[in-house]
């Protein structure tokens, strides 16, 4: 019965309540979904604040549905207590613990590492100890520390049992010495991000300059060099997001800017692939929440913002941004239709097969 009770505790805590918590949208907008990673049912704009009713992994339930919390700042305690559980434990020299269900004069019966056991009292060096644990769901990344100093990182959403008196934590069949929450202190490497992004910009511009369509038209769409003023870090309390501005302008092939025409981007897939690589660079240099690319284009007079593409670190870690198609499917984006050179149906024809390689 003790094993079944523990299982029910953990299952009931997967979808955790977070009473009194709120989240605030940090990106230009984020999708609201019917379920975590489910159907899109709405949108929340930047700065929108809502009460957080529940949490599952990196997804949070707001008033209208589920949102990816990577795109938000969440006002949360380190963990949320969802209940209490009394257990009797036998601590072994190996660091493992037996969760005791019953005992008689000679033996102890219980669960060890998820399996039922019966051990002789003469073989154990300690007696059962009574604990009143808090059932806690982590809201932030934590680190378990063993009595020997061994560490185990834990993700948000992980369920642990905490003894509020001693601070000891029962997790994965072991009784850990303590649970620590380390503040994010290391900022992403902005200089390295700028250097790598500008390297990608050079490659992208060279490909556009030498493309057959640029030879036919006599001009191409160029991304201007990214400078320090074009990048900003966004601290969230549990990591950093980054916002990056990319400016597009038409240039003649002899190097002169086209000053009287509105810039329109030509191939969708190649631009999304470029944004995917820029996003990957940011995540590789210390960004652990989101990357928002704000797209500006020269409209004949000034540079005007025409939308954004935002990507989640956790979605990236799951491998869902690994190809152009994945990125187009799983990144958040809101771009002006007027940004593009062709209508969508034309892109479907042009980008069919290997046309992007021309």
Question: In terms of topology, how is this protein built?
Answer:
Blueprint: H1 2-12, E1 22-25, E2 29-33, E3 40-45, E4 49-51, E5 54-56, E6 59-61, E7 66-68, E8 72-75, E9 79-91, E10 97-103, E11 107-112, E12 115-120, E13 129-138, E14 142-145, E15 151-154, E16 159-162, E17 169-171, E18 174-176, E19 178-180, H2 190-209, H3 212-217, E20 219-223, E21 231-235, E22 240-252, H4 268-284, E23 290-298, E24 303-312, H5 313-317, H6 324-330, E25 332-335, H7 344-350
Parallel strand pairs: 22-23
Antiparallel strand pairs: 1-4, 1-8, 2-3, 5-6, 6-7, 9-10, 9-13, 10-11, 11-12, 13-16, 14-15, 14-19, 16-17, 17-18, 20-22, 21-22, 23-24, 24-25
Feature tags:
SH3 type barrels; single chain; Diaminopimelate Epimerase, Chain A, domain 1; disordered N terminus; 25 strands; disordered C terminus; 8-stranded antiparallel β-sheet; 358 residues; 6-stranded mixed β-sheet; alpha+beta
Number of strands: 25
Oligomeric form of this entry? Answer: single chain
CATH topology of the largest domain: Diaminopimelate Epimerase, Chain A, domain 1
* Average pLDDT: 88
In the residues, how many domains can be counted?
Answer: 3
């Amino acid at each position: 019965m003790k094993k079944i009770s523990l299982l029910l505790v953990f299952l009931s805590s997967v979808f955790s309540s977070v009473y009194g918590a709120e989240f605030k949208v940090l990106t230009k907008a984020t999708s609201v979904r019917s379920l975590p990673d489910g159907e899109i049912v709405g949108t929340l704009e930047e700065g929108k604040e809502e009460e957080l009713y529940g949490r599952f992994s990196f997804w949070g339930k707001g008033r209208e549905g589920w949102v990816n919390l990577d795109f938000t700042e969440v006002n949360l305690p380190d963990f949320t207590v969802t209940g209490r559980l009394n257990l009797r434990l036998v601590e072994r020299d190996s660091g493992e613990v037996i969760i005791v269900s019953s005992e008689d004069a000679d033996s102890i019966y219980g669960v060890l590492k998820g399996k039922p056991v019966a051990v002789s009292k003469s073989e154990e060096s300690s007696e059962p100890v009574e604990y009143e644990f808090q059932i806690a769901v982590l809201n932030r990344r934590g680190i378990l520390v063993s009595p020997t100093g061994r560490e185990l990182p834990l993700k948000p959403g992980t369920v642990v049992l905490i003894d509020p008196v001693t601070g000891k934590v029962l997790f994965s069949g072991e009784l850990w010495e303590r649970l620590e929450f380390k503040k994010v202190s290391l900022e992403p490497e902005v200089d390295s991000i700028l250097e790598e992004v500008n390297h990608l910009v050079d490659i992208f511009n060279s490909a556009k300059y030498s493309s057959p369509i640029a030879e036919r038209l006599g001009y191409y769409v160029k991304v201007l060099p990214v400078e320090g003023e074009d990048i900003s870090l966004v601290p969230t309390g549990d990591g950093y997001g980054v916002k990056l501005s990319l400016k597009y302008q038409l240039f003649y092939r002899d190097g002169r800017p086209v000053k009287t025409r509105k810039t329109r981007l030509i191939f969708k897939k190649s631009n999304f692939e470029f944004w995917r690589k820029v996003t990957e660079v940011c995540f590789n240099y210390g960004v652990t929440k989101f990357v928002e690319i704000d797209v500006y284009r020269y409209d004949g007079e000034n540079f005007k913002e025409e939308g954004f593409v935002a990507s989640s670190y956790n979605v990236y870690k799951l491998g869902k941004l690994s190809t152009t198609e994945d990125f187009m499917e799983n990144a958040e984006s809101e771009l002006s239709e007027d940004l593009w050179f062709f209508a969508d149906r034309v892109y479907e024809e042009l980008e069919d097969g290997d046309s992007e390689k021309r």
